[in-house]
Specification:
Elements: H1 2-15, H2 17-149
């Protein structure tokens, strides 16, 4: 009898529209959940694959950026070193130019001093000669005059 009872219960359940609707609702939810779970698993697999691809892209991006940055830093360093060399060369050139200018100025000053002293000596010699040229005739004339009128002057 227990088998008959079970068969009767199954028939009652299958003939009961509320139970049938409930069973269809539960099986729909179960199928929907399984479909959702399968879709979620597929999406997760796709996301993991994309994650790996994106990870490779990100690694390549950062590796490229690192290389670009290192290249840029090395270029800046080379430019800085070249600028330092140019500045040092420019500084040395300026210092040498200043030394040359000072030496030229000193040489010109020495030459001007020597020329000035020579001119003063020439002027002094000329002045002395002129003095002698002008005073000797006057002295000679005075000597001649005194020698001529000297005997006529009273003696003391």
């Amino acid at each position: 009898m227990s088998e008959e009872n079970q068969n009767n219960l199954e028939k009652k359940k299958s003939s009961n529209p509320f139970a049938k609707g409930w069973n269809d609702f539960v099986s729909g939810i179960k199928d929907g959940f399984q479909s959702f779970q399968k879709g979620l698993e597929d999406q997760t697999k796709k996301n993991l694959e994309q994650w790996e691809q994106n990870k490779e892209k990100v690694d390549q991006f950062f590796h490229g950026m690192k290389n670009n940055w290192e290249n840029q830093v090395s270029r800046w360093q080379k430019d800085f070193e070249q600028a330092q060399i140019k500045n040092e060369e420019s500084w040395n050139k300026t210092v040498n130019q200043m030394r040359e200018d000072v030496e030229k100025w000193q040489e010109k000053t020495r030459k001007d001093w020597k020329d000035g002293v020579r001119e003063i000596n020439k002027w002094g010699a000329r002045a002395y000669l002129r003095f002698l040229l002008y005073t000797i005739p006057v002295i000679i004339i005075l000597i001649v005059i005194f020698s001529i009128i000297g005997p006529y002057l009273p003696t003391p």
